[in-house]
Amino acid sequence: MKNSECSNNSNYEKDNIRHELQLLIDKLGFIISLAMNDYININNK
């Protein structure tokens, strides 16, 4: 494998990890907002 191929593969892996991490953060933010809505609704009852 050439150095450029290795570098491209490494960059791809980093981008893929960033993408997966962003998806998890987005999902977590959605879950937290749902939990906060439930908490607010419980307090309003």
TrEMBL record:
Species for this entry: Funneliformis caledonium
The protein's name in its UniProt record: 13690_t:CDS:1
Domain of life assignment: Eukaryota
